[in-house]
């Protein structure tokens, strides 16, 4: 069986100071630099990033992966009339293939709910400091991104990596003419407020935002 992806929103190329950068190679280096056995992904869509993490991390060790998504779509999906039922079916198909490609065990929990409820669910299970990696790529509105960051931060281990996608994404601004519809304002607010509990990872493409948790 083959993967069924209709886009490459994860791992595509971005331009930094006029130079084309492959985000997939950045992720490959990041994942090789540590042991990521427990991963929380907020926003999974067709599972492109999910499958990449399964293949990369599952090649080294067993992986516990929690994916939170409503598979109901958001503003940009509605604008392009995406069939979210088909998107979810492709996710299920793709993660099954990825899991079959690696020798180590992959335990994937699919939480089909809002990220607010999903993170609350994990917090209620006392999963404080449970994840090595948190990838925030759900709703793009500033309020939702800030909520995702604040709720998932206690779930991240000290020393763990948090990555925000779409730091420089501006389609929401183009659609609605307000910064409240893009992630950047929320990511900036979170990183400023939590500055004494994080270390920002510099030297990586600024289209995404990378930080390490240094304390609770």
Description:
By secondary structure, the chain is of the alpha/beta class. The protein has one domain (18-213): Rossmann fold, CATH 3.40.50.150. Helices cover 38% and strands 22% of the residues. The protein has eight helices and nine strands. The chain has a seven-stranded mixed sheet, with helices on both faces. Helix 6 (142-152) packs parallel to helix 8 (184-193). The longest helix is centred in the middle third of the chain and has 18 residues, at 84-101. The radius of gyration is 16 Å and the shape is globular. This is O-methyltransferase-like protein.
| Rg, Cα atoms, Å | 16 Å
Determine the structural class based on helices, strands and strand pairing: alpha/beta
CATH structural fold name: Rossmann fold
Strand order of the largest sheet: 5-4-3-6-7-9-8
* H/E topology pattern: EEHEHEHHEHEHEHHEE
Number of helices: 8
Mean pLDDT: 93
Q: Helicity level, as a percent range?
A: 25-40%
State the major sheet. Answer: 7 strands, mixed
| Strand tally | 9
Q: How many domains, in number, for the residues? A: 1
InterPro entries: SAM-dependent_MTases_sf
Pfam families: Methyltransf_24 (PF13578)
Protein name: O-methyltransferase-like protein
Organism: Pseudogulbenkiania ferrooxidans 2002
Write the layout of secondary structure elements.
Elements: E1 13-16, E2 19-22, H1 23-32, E3 38-42, H2 48-58, E4 63-68, H3 75-79, H4 84-101, E5 106-111, H5 115-124, E6 131-136, H6 142-152, E7 156-164, H7 171-176, H8 184-193, E8 198-200, E9 209-213
Parallel strand pairs: 3-4, 3-6, 4-5, 6-7
Antiparallel strand pairs: 1-2, 7-9, 8-9
Helix pairs in contact: 2-4, 5-6, 6-8
């Amino acid at each position: 069986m083959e993967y069924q992806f209709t886009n490459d929103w994860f791992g595509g190329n971005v331009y930094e100071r006029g130079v084309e950068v492959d985000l997939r190679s950045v992720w490959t280096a990041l994942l090789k630099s540590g042991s990521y056995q427990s991963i929380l992904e907020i926003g999974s869509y067709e599972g492109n990033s999910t499958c990449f993490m399964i293949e990369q991390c599952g090649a080294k060790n067993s992986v516990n992966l929690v994916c939170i998504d409503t598979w109901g779509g958001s503003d940009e999906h509605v604008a392009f009339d995406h069939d979210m039922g088909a998107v979810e079916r492709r996710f299920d198909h793709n993660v099954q293939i990825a899991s079959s490609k690696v020798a180590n065990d992959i335990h994937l929990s699919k939480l089909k709910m809002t990220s607010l409820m999903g993170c609350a669910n994990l917090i209620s299970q006392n999963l404080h400091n449970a994840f090595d990696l948190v990838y925030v790529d759900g709703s793009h509105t500033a309020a939702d991104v800030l909520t995702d960051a604040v709720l998932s931060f206690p779930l991240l281990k000290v020393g763990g990596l948090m990555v925000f996608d779409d730091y420089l994404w501006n389609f929401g601004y183009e659609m609605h003419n307000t910064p409240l519809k893009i992630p950047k304002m929320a990511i900036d607010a979170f990183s400023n407020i939590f500055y004494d509990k994080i270390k920002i990872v510099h030297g990586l493409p600024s289209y995404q935002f990378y930080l390490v948790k240094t304390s609770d």
